[in-house]
Amino acid sequence: MQEKTGSRNIFKKAGRGRAAALKAQTAASWIALIVSACVLTAAMIYSSRTLRSLDKKLTPLVNEAFAAVYADHGARTAELSERIKLIVHEAEMKLTIVAGHRDIAELKRCAGELAALGERGDMESYVSCLNGIRSILSMLIENDRLTIRNVL
Length: 152
Prior knowledge:
Blueprint: H1 2-70, H2 74-98, H3 101-117, H4 123-145, H5 148-151
Helix pairs in contact: 1-2, 1-4, 2-3, 3-4
């Protein structure tokens, strides 16, 4: 009789050990879920702030460059083009976290071509490069809005 009681105690202890392990596993799963939600939220906030900051810097310059192009101010257009190129190159490291490499390469290409035109570029080339910069920036901002935030 004692042998049956002893084996029952062993099974009870084993069952309690499994239950404790299951509770610990559940708690670890919840902690991992909460940490991942926090990391995802931080990444979304970083992405939004980075793109908003770039937009605040580039959009006024692009608009001013359009005005300079249409007013036929070559020197002013060249100066703004260099500033746009500098801002794009400074933002490249941050953009690698929030944007695709093709988008970054295209943005850099447009900014580089714009700066390369200098004072002697024709209106069509300036407008093409400025529109390229504007459209890529708009696409990045729009893609940032199409995240999990919209699903939740």
